[in-house]
Amino acid sequence: MAKAPPVSYGALSLKPSEQPAEAERAKSIAAEDAPRPKRPVETKADPTLVYMSPEAKLALKHFALARGPKVKVHDLLIEALEEWSGRKGVRDQAGRPVEWRVPSNRVRRSS
């Protein structure tokens, strides 16, 4: 049995109304592929993943909410790390206590 010849799209022409839409779609795809700028903290901080039980995570969320609407679970975890490292004497290479928080470059509004 003979194989069918390969399909050639050379003779195919697009209608004029289809070409601008295709160009816009190509631009939107290129815009999506462009690297997004990183936030300042992302360039300085090293992300770390913590695995915890669902019950512990929920309890931490409830604890944060009880302390106030602006208290975040992340802040509670950082506080716990700061306290733990202070008790254990964790130091950097220069012998100073470890800084757990990355300072923000953003100017804060006074309240």
Element string (H = helix, E = strand)? HHHH
Q: Structural class given helices, strands, pairing?
A: mainly alpha
Mean pLDDT: 78
Amount of beta strand: under 5%
Name the overall outline.
elongated
Fraction of helical residues: 40-55%
The Cα radius of gyration reads 27 Å
Could you give a short account of the major beta sheet?
none
How many β-strands, per DSSP? 0
What is the helix tally?
A: 4
Unreliable segments of 5+ consecutive residues: none
Q: How many angstroms does the end-to-end distance come to?
A: 82 Å
Write the layout of secondary structure elements.
Elements: H1 18-33, H2 40-44, H3 54-67, H4 73-88
Can you characterise this structure?
By secondary structure, the chain is mainly α. The chain has a domain of 73 residues. The chain contains 4 helices and no strands. The protein is elongated, with a radius of gyration of 27 Å. 0% of the residues are buried.
Q: Characteristics of this structure?
A:
111 residues, mainly alpha
Structure described in brief:
The protein has four helices and no strands. The protein has helices at residues 18-33, 40-44, 54-67, 73-88.
